[in-house]
Amino acid sequence: MGLELEYGQMRRNYINCKVLEFKGKFFNHHPKEGDMDQRFIEGEEAMELTVRIWTDPKLIHYIGMIIPPRPGIQRCLTMLEYLHFPPCTPLNDEYQFVTYEFSGILFGVVSIPKQKKHLMETIADESGLRIVKGVPTLLSSDRQDSFPIQSSDAYSLENKPGHSVYNSTQQQIRAMLIAEYRELEDRFGI
């Protein structure tokens, strides 16, 4: 049973699986040539992938809020993949994308080789994001929750100080997101 999410013309299906007390969704990174309907994995296979990715000393991890959407995140993650780790190519095996549901928020995590972190730094900057050492922390009036997977090689993606998102109405933020999705659709046909 999957959850379907829509962003304009962009559609992705996610299948729930239990991983380290939260839900994780994993893309299969070996689709057939030209097949963009990637398979999802779950259960023990998902747990093994989580451990393998997060303990690999050659990888660096970037965490961004997907739902509710944060302006710049979808653009950043998509541009990184399509420009530098194109789908259905051997390079795409170096781009690990996993989504995690944590405290009712869907986070996307991209793991790439450390020696290619300059690619993320450039695209994050162009997308209006800054890279902050550490995992996301959610604050409420009575508690503080940190992202359930910790790594010294984990970084959060957030909007730069002074970004227009901080002074915008919900309607203006929605317009930013729509423009972002249209750019990706026009550029990559997704």
Keywords:
190 residues; alpha+beta; eight-stranded mixed sheet; two-stranded antiparallel ribbon; 4 helices; 28% helix
SSE order and pairing:
Blueprint: E1 2-7, E2 10-15, E3 18-19, E4 22-27, E5 40-41, H1 43-55, E6 59-67, H2 73-84, E7 96-102, E8 105-113, H3 117-126, E9 129-133, E10 137-139, E11 144-146, E12 154-159, H4 170-188
Parallel strand pairs: 6-12
Antiparallel strand pairs: 1-2, 3-4, 4-5, 4-7, 6-8, 7-8, 9-12, 10-11
Describe the protein in words.
The chain is an alpha+beta fold and 190 residues long. It contains 4 helices and 12 strands. A hairpin with a 2-residue loop joins strand 1 and strand 2. Helix 2 packs across helix 3 and helix 2 runs parallel beside helix 4. The chain is globular, with a radius of gyration of 16 Å. The two termini are 24 Å apart.
Query: So what's the overall shape?
Result: globular
- Cα end-to-end separation: 24 Å
* Rg (C-alpha, Å): 16 Å
DSSP, total strands: 12
Q: Which stretches are low in confidence, meaning pLDDT under 50 for 5 or more residues running?
A: 1-38
Let me know the average pLDDT.
78
Amount of helix: 25-40%
Element pattern in H and E: EEEEEHEHEEHEEEEH
**How large is the count of helical segments?**
4
Percentage of residues in DSSP E strands:
25-35%
What characterizes the major β-sheet?
Answer: 8 strands, mixed
